[in-house]
Structure formats: C-alpha cells, structure tokens
Amino acid sequence: MAGASYNKNQINPAPNSRTLKEDIQVWLEDDEIWYDSSLTKAELMMLVRANKPTPIYRATEIAVPYGHLPIELIWADIKGRIADDPASDMAELRGKIEAGFDSLESKTWTNAYQHAQKYEQLYMAMVDECELVSDEEVSEADDDADGSDCE
Question: Which PANTHER family match (predicted)?
Fold first, then answer.
C-alpha cells in the first residue's frame, strides 16, 4: 500500500506508547488476551506487541467486498472462462488457468484498472470524513519498545 496518509487509515489499530494503561487493558480484554492486573504499562505493551494483529486498512476493506481491485476482476474473467468449460483434473485446470492469463488482451487489463480508478475518486472524496493516522503515530506504534514504565 502506498505511503499516502489516506492509505494509513487502519481500522484495527493496536495501542501504542501514548495509549492510557486502562485503554491497553481494555484492548487486551477485547482480544481475549490474559494479563495480570499488576503488570506495568511497559509490560502490557510487550503483550500488545506480541499479539498485534496484521493491519487492516479502510481503503482495502472498502474495495475487497465489491470487487474493486483490478486483480479480482481479472480472476473473475478467467474463472468465468473455466466455468464455461470445466477441467477434468488438476493438470488440465492448471493449463486452463495459464491459457486464461495468456489469452487476456491488454484491453481487459486496462478495463479492470479503469474500473478500479473510478472508485479511487470515491475513496479520495471520503478522506475528509475519515480519521487519519499521522506518520508520527505510525512510527511511534512501530517504536513502542521504549521501555518506559509510565502509567
């Protein structure tokens, strides 16, 4: 994902060093991660780092269910061709997939890209409505190994 700020709008952010200890505890409880209530904030942050989920970004979540990703449109084209003439075994299926990619015209790729571009404008219009993560917050989230014992 490109480094533009509108691409950094994460929908499942993990706590960082600026998060209050109570909020870290709530995050751990919500994710069903056991912790001892006597742990310090730094120790809780170690648990957060160990259980940090893979980031999910709003732009990706908007695009995926509606097929706005160009590769999904290409796959749909190839799968449609295979559905019209199903393979009888895996070797034949592999051959049909390779033939499907080989037979794709540049117009098909261009159409898929242009289809996705239409939605990019929609996403850009939505940027003003979304809470964005600053570059500073992103780098701090990655650098949470500061060892501070703040509470």
Answer: DUF4371 DOMAIN-CONTAINING PROTEIN (PTHR33939:SF1), PROTEIN CBG22215 (PTHR33939)
